[in-house]
Write a structure and sequence with these properties.
The chain has 26 helices and 19 strands. By secondary structure, it is α/β, with parallel strands linked by helices. A five-stranded parallel beta sheet has the order 15-16-17-18-19. A four-stranded parallel beta sheet has the order 1-5-7-8. It is globular and about 75 Å long. Bound molecules: glutamine (GLN) and zinc ion.
Length: 769
């Protein structure tokens, strides 16, 4: 393998004008909104369920904002952000600010209220929600603005100004944060029906007047700083996109005069081209990245993970930077908004002291930023620094972290290749002799509906309220029910339904060494939804088999092939907080070895079909094209490691929860799975186009024939239609028939008829072939 990409230290390049001279300059880019115990989530959901009033919701929100501001102020942070709170999403807040409400929501003007706001976010009885998509390479999702040439912008949400004033009334002078105008447009999509040729950036002239109004009001309210988040600057932009930055900030220049302006970038370093454009702005606007005479906000505290900062290392980096930019020109900051980390370690009572000393959630990161700023100014808190140094040392030397055997095994994987010995078409032939499946074989993705009763059984077993015996009995009954149902439906390759799993990553993490699970380490995913990623703190190993007991039990209930069901190493990695003391690929290889052991144990137990889900493989794709090949290489290698040791007759499936893999199709093929099932039902065309373009594909493939995210039951004709469409571009003998994803979130009264129609459609087409 090539060496890991060498990243420059996490820096967010920001430039400010006329910054007041200050010795202890500390800055926080943004802060989590949910609250230490997800207070906002519960307030939102209760409001949506009409169990509480708008006033109740506003009160919870105001209390959260106030406690966050006060917490940062008392920690000594100098540049405290405001307007990073949101009832749903900061991009949607910007849409509201600009009055860019799509016409279907029937908004007629005036200040946008909860009704319109939440209709855009979540849809209402008659209109679906706006589209949601991932925020850069994080697990946060934003609401995608829909803009067309006809749109009339107006200043329709005074939230930024209101929050600035609210903080000021509490005695905290904040830095109001706005999503920058260029990033806003670059993150938008053209409204439905707008021709492809329409340029979103052409709307710049129309939104800048609103930005000017907002800036003027903030100035009038007493703000002396303003922060524009322009994270798209870290992407590979085209020159006309870069020119838009020049145009926008030149246009804003007169309104901004007298204000200190921070342009905030995060998630990666600014590419050379963008850096050049921005430095060239200097002559035009006096607003650039020429570090001499400007201030540098250095994001040395990582906003995306949960590890305590190595304060000594950061301080020495800061001192080096100070040598470059000049004394008093350096502001200590976070690498990005703390939105992407957990909230407060204080609530983690189950962690032991040692593990806790290695960690820092948002509240602790605020303290770190401030202590670094103080140390830089010559007021080092020796006790705090030496406590931190001790924790860093204990993490480096702890036997809980290091497992020599695992390190060695993972290191041995580097530079070598792992592939099954036989090519995929020969393997498929060997497997078919053994499995004897009909053409267009039917299967499902793994989980069956998770009933309240099932959740109760798992909860009570975990809390030791029921015995192991009772638990096994209950799960066994459930598996039996699911097996019998699939036989009745006449599905060809069965699943056990995953009733013993609460989450596809947590289930494995809990059985592997090197993982820890927080009680309250929630991170906002979208709206009121949060995820609680496992923490990988040490070398990963598998003390004992994890799924063999249930899978072989399930296989013993049927003569049909039963799929063993595993989560792949890349997905486990991408959905966890990953250790920062070794490269990501190293951790991924370790997980791959653990999963490999499981694959081989399943094979020994007589499981002939094994599915290794890589639902999140695409999520880890780096933002910058120059880094993508390296990632794909080790990610795909990790997947192959898990199953390179099985015999030809063992059929390896994988599953992916997206269909936009046109750009990574060669990596997907290189995974060398025997069968791949993918989400597809919402975008047939995209997937089909890959194959129309002549990509050679010889493995089995099951593009989902219906959307499991909707309660709607698809008809036999509709499913048959989609299968026929697929058959126009794919060989008959490689096509599988299956739903989009697992059935966990659906009800049995939806799943039964849907699967019945799916099998009927497959059978109908078989007779016609
Ligand atoms: N096997 C998992 C399930 O069926 C896959 C889930 C997923 O892809 N997100 O639930
Ligand atoms: Zn899926």
């Amino acid at each position: 393998d090539p060496p890991p990409p060498t990243h420059p230290p996490l820096l967010s390049f920001q430039s400010i004008n006329n910054f007041p001279n200050s010795k202890m300059a500390s800055h926080i880019v943004g802060y989590p909104r949910m609250g230490p115990k997800r207070e906002l989530k519960f307030a939102l959901e209760s409001f949506w369920d009409k169990k509480s009033s708008a006033e109740d919701l506003k009160k919870v929100a105001a209390d959260l904002r106030s406690s966050i501001w006060k917490q940062m102020a008392s920690a000594g942070i100098k540049y405290i952000p405001s307007n990073t709170f949101s009832y749903y999403d900061q991009v949607l807040d910007t849409t509201a600010m600009l009055g860019a409400v799509p016409p279907r929501y029937g908004w007629t003007g005036g200040e946008i209220g909860f009704d319109t706001y939440f209709s855009m976010a979540r849809g209402n009885a008659s209109v679906p929600a706006m589209e949601m998509t991932k925020w850069f390479d994080t697990n946060y999702h934003f609401i995608v603005p829909e803009l067309g040439p006809e749109i009339k912008f107006s200043y329709a949400s005074h939230k930024a100004v209101d929050e600035y004033k609210e903080a000021k009334a509490l005695g905290v002078d904040t830095v109001p944060v706005l999503v920058g105008p260029v990033s806003y447009l670059l993150l938008s999509k053209p409204a439905k029906g707008v021709e492809k040729s329409f340029s979103l950036l052409s709307l710049l002239d129309k939104i800048l007047p609103i930005y000017k109004e907002v800036v003027a009001e903030l100035k009038a309210a007493g703000a002396s700083w303003i922060q524009f988040d322009e994270p798209t600057l870290v992407k590979d932009l085209e020159s006309h996109q870069l020119q838009a930055f020049t145009a926008a900030y030149s246009e804003l220049e007169s309104t901004l005069s007298g204000l200190n302006v921070i342009v905030e970038t995060y998630f990666a370093d600014v590419p050379a081209e963008a850096f050049k454009t921005l430095t060239s702005l200097k002559c035009v606007t006096g607003f650039g990245f020429d570090l001499s005479g400007k201030y540098l906000f250095a994001g040395v505290v990582d906003g995306r993970n949960i590890w305590a900062n190595d304060l000594a290392a950061s301080l020495s980096l800061l001192q080096t930077l100070e040598g470059i930019v000049g004394k008093d020109k350096l502001v200590v900051s976070t690498s990005c908004s703390l939105l992407h980390t957990a909230v407060d370690l204080v609530n983690e009572t189950k962690f032991d002291k040692e593990l806790k000393s290695w960690l820092a959630f948002a509240a602790q990161k605020v303290v770190e930023v401030n202590s670094l700023a103080k140390a830089l100014a010559g007021h080092k808190d020796e006790a705090f620094f030496s406590e931190n140094a001790a924790a860093q040392a204990s993490r480096k030397s702890s036997p809980r972290v290091t497992n020599e055997a695992v390190q060695k095994a993972a290191a041995a994987l580097r530079g070598s290749d792992h592939r099954r010995a036989t090519n995929v078409s020969a393997r498929l032939d060997a497997q078919q002799k053994k499995l004897n499946l009909p053409i267009l074989p039917t299967t499902t993705i793994g989980s069956f509906p998770q009933t309240i009763e099932l959740r109760r059984v798992r909860r009570e077993y975990k809390a030791k309220k029921i015995s192991e015996e009772e638990y096994v009995k209950a799960i066994k009954e459930e598996i039996n029910k699911v097996v019998k149902l699939q036989e009745e439906l006449d599905i060809d390759v069965l699943v056990h339904g995953e009733p013993e799993r609460n989450d596809m990553v947590e289930y494995f993490g809990e059985q592997l060494s090197g993982f820890a699970f927080s009680a309250n380490g929630w991170v906002q995913s979208y709206g009121s939804r949060c995820v609680k990623p496992p923490i990988i703190f040490g070398d990963v190993s598998r003390p004992k088999a994890m799924t063999v007991f249930w899978s072989s039990m399930a296989q013993s209930m049927t003569a049909r092939p039963m799929k063993g069901m595993l989560t792949g190493p890349v997905t486990i990695l991408n959905w966890s907080f990953v250790r920062n003391d070794q490269p990501r690929f190293e951790t991924c290889y370790q997980i791959a070895l653990a999963i490999k052991d499981e694959v081989e144990d399943l094979e020994k137990a007589g499981i002939n079909v094994i599915q290794i889900d890589e639902a999140a493989l695409r999520e880890g794709l780096p933002l910058r094209k120059s880094e993508q090949a390296f990632y794909l290489d080790w990610a795909v290698h990790s997947f192959r490691i898990t199953n390179c040791g099985v015999t030809d007759t063992t059929q390896i499936h994988t599953h992916m929860c997206y269909s936009n893999f046109n750009d990574i199709i060669h990596s997907i093929i290189d995974m060398d799975a025997d069968v791949i099932t993918i989400e597809n039902s919402r975008s047939d065309e995209k997937l089909l186009s890959v194959f129309r373009e002549g990509v050679k594909y010889g493995a089995g493939i099951g593009p989902g024939v219906y959307d499991i995210h909707s309660p709607r039951i698809p008809s036999t004709e509709e499913i048959a239609d989609r299968i026929n469409k697929m058959l126009q571009v794919l060989e008959t003998n490689i096509l599988w028939v299956n739903p989009d994803c697992g059935l966990k979130t659906r009800k049995y009264h939806e799943v039964k008829p849907a699967l019945l129609n799916m099998v009927a459609a497959a059978k109908q087409i078989r007779t016609q072939l």
